[in-house]
Amino acid sequence: MINFFNQQAFTLYIASNSASRKKLLEQAGIIFEVIEHDADESTVQQDQPFCNIVQQTAQLKMDHAKISDGNYQGEIRFILTADTLGLTKQDRVLCKPFNRKDAISMLGDARGGTLTITAFCLRKIEWKYGYWHLVQEVADFDQADSIFDVPDVCMDFYLDSIDFLSVSGAISIEGVGGQFLKFVQGSYESIIGLPMYKLRKHLYDMGFYDKVLWNLHFY
Q1: Average of per-residue pLDDT across 15-29
Q2: Which of 70, 118, 136, 169 could form a disulfide with 94 if both were Cys (CB 3.0 to 4.6 A apart)?
């Protein structure tokens, strides 16, 4: 059997510190390296369709990703940014909570149902003559409708079990949180933070993998 990691021709540079996204990439066998961004997400206009807010935030992160200089002429790198937001039936946007009280309020609204969208931006760039040049870029998203229902009696247990300040809407459907996911329709991994099916497809189409080895193994 061909080693999966040998099918990957490049390292994926992801401008995100999300533990959930890193876990998804690790589970998919994708070699990655975390880089920083200095995007000010508050500059994204909120009075527009919800999907646009998420997509523009992912794009903003890409525009502010901190990419180190290339090592040689013609070097290729792949850069990924992403953003996840939820929208309740009451039209409340579920960003990361400010504190525990805010988290409890968000979780209460989530009981009525939430639309969660994860948008991502993927760039292929090439180092030429001392600068990075854009070769290809794709922006995409996926979504899911869900009901995340943490009963009041379980609220402290749940919040004490996760890093709730680091996830949108304080909703974590992995680990301890899985028992409170009452319903989901759509892209499960979009709720976690990265739609892996679409990401894998775009990476393949953009030449991220050694296609000869990939085809031998999967086809």
Answers
A1: 94
A2: 169
